[in-house]
Structures are given as structure tokens and as C-alpha cells.
Amino acid sequence: MNNKTVKKEAPEVTKKGLGTLIGKISGKGQLELEIDRLNSQVVNLELDLRTAKSQLEKKEALARQAVADRQEAEALLNQERIRTRTLSHELETVRTESEGKLKFRGIETLSPQAVLAYLSKLKSFYSPSGDLLTVYLPPDTRLSDVLSEKLLERVEEETRTLLDRLDSETGAVLFYDLHRIVCEAIALPVPITSPAWQLGNSFEVALLEEILSKDYRMLVCVLHAGESFIGFTPDARVFDTEELIRSSVKEKHSKGGFSQRRFERLREEDIAHHMDKVIEALDRVLEENRSIDFVILSGDFQLIGEIRKRLPLNLEIIEKPSDIRVEKTDGEEILRAVLSSRRYLL
């Protein structure tokens, strides 16, 4: 190879080396840029991690506080539950004691004529402030079943308690002045069929008068061992049929031992014989009078139970406590007694 050739190739080698050097320098720059980018990303990730840790610590602190608050709330709730149970028990005790002391201010039996006079007096009451309350309560109906809660709160609890004690088979009518000038109830001899109430300037008496004025077809049985009465009235004014049933029934034995047991057995046989006669008379009256609105039973509790078993299931029965003694009264007095009403001063 001559000198000319060598001289000619030297510039080409120099150019290649320079290109390689520049390429290396350029690659190093890119690598440094990539390192810087990665370092920046690391820094950002560290910041994100610190932020996440800070948020986690806050959430954990909130969670711990929430647990503490919940525990405190549960403790307070338990305390309130215990306090509520204690107060409820104390209230029930006080209520039981007060109910035991609560009594009607008075109880009066009103004959049909006396009831009319009573209603006439009630109609004379007038209040311009519209605070006279009348409530019609069918059997097994409480005041809270008829009145709104707001109006019920205006009736004293003592009055509500006494009203619940009436236990009338026919229901009751309450006449109540919200200022307690008038506070009483009346139990009728016939059932109240529908609940109703009125708050106004006067008491609502018209419905009660309507109930009492109807011509009810009634069967009346006054039952006592030895003497019983059966009567039927087509208009609740006078008996159309009357029958007095008498039998010989031994008086109760006060001595003990075998003699008493034998005597009681003979007495029970006498009563059974008497009831046979009563049931025979009852069947005759039922046969002659198919249409009956009510059956009124009064007298001995056990005998009433026996008669109930013999009455048709479709008949509405009213048990009326009474001290009527058949041998001392006639049919007119018996009818007046069983059609009497009871007035309760609350």
C-alpha cells in the first residue's frame, strides 16, 4: 500500500471515531435524562406514600375515635335502658298503687223513668267554649280505640282508668267536661252497637235517647234455686208472657261430716229438678216467640250458666247482676229492674 492510500483513509477513520464518540455522548445524555425521570418518579411516589400514610394514620385515628365514641354511646345507651326500666317499674308500681286507691265517686241505679230525667238534665248543660265531650263506647271498647291521641290526652288518666273498670256487657256513654265539672258515665240495659264521639257546646244525648226508645223484643230470666221467673216483652215496656217457676229446694246445710255431704247431694238433686222445670217453661216461651232481640239473664251465676247452654246460639245474651228476689216482686217490678241503667261518677 502506498502513502497516498494511507493518507486517503485517515480522514475516514477519524470521522467514524468522532461519530462513535458523539453517539456515546448522546446515549449517556439520554440515560441521564432517564435516570432523572426515574428519580423524579421516585420522589413523587415517596410523596404519594407519605400522603397515603398520613391519610391512613388519620383514618386509623378516626376509626379509633369512632370505636371509642361507639363504646361511650353504648355505655350511655345501657345506662338509659337501665334508667328507663327503673322508671317504668316505678311508674307501674305507682300506677298499681294509685289504681288500688282509685274508686268511683259514686254508683247509682237509674230506673227507666229516672234515666229520662237524667238525660233531660244533661241536655241543659251548655258551654260556649265547646269543651263538652260525649263518647259512645260499645262493649269491649276502650276510650283510646275511639278518640284521637291528641284528644285522649285531654282526658285525665284517672278517668280513663275508672272507665276501663266498668266492664259493662252493654258498653257505656261518657259525659266529660274538659274542666271536670261533669265527669261520669252511664251503662245502658241494652248494647251500644257503634262507637261515636262529639266535642261541642253541649252533650250528645239524642243518640242515647234513640237507643232507649226502641221497641226491643226481650226474653227475661231471673234464676234462683227454688224460685225463678221467665217473661217475654215485645216492646221493652210490659211483659206479654210471664211465668213463675217454684220448686222445693232445701236450704244450705251448715253442719259437717256425712250428714252434710248427703244433705248437699239431696239439695243438688232439688236444684236439678227445679232447672228441668225452668228449661221446660223456657222452651215453651221460645217456641211461641221466635223473634227475640235480647235475652237478659239475672240471678244465680251457676243457674245462668246452665240456661246459657240451652239457649239458641244466635240469641244475644246480656248478663245483668241483680239482687231481685222473685217472691217479693211482680213482673212489672222485675222488668223495671232489668231495664235499669247504672250511673258512674268518675
Compute the number of structural domains. 3
Low-confidence stretches: 1-10
- The CATH architecture of the largest domain can be given as 2-Layer Sandwich
CATH superfamily of the largest domain: eRF1 domain 2
Q: What integer value in Å does the Rg equal? A: 48 Å
Say what the CATH topology of the largest domain is.
Nucleotidyltransferase, domain 5
The number of strands is 11
Average pLDDT reading:
85
Q: Can you give the helix content as a percent range?
A: 40-55%
Give a written overview of the molecule:
The structure is a single chain. A six-stranded antiparallel beta sheet has the order 1-11-4-3-2-5. The protein has 346 residues and is an alpha+beta fold. The chain folds into three domains: 1-101; 106-212, eRF1 domain 1 (Translation, Eukaryotic Peptide Chain Release Factor Subunit 1, Chain A); 215-339, eRF1 domain 2 (Nucleotidyltransferase, domain 5), CATH 3.30.420.60. The protein has helices at residues 3-101, 112-123, 149-152, 157-164, 206-213, 257-288, 301-310, 331-338, and strands at residues 106-110, 132-137, 172-177, 183-187, 196-200, 218-223, 227-233, 241-246, 294-299, 317-319, 341-345. It is built from eight helices and eleven strands. A hairpin with a 7-residue loop joins strand 7 and strand 8 (241-246). It is elongated, with a radius of gyration of 48 Å.
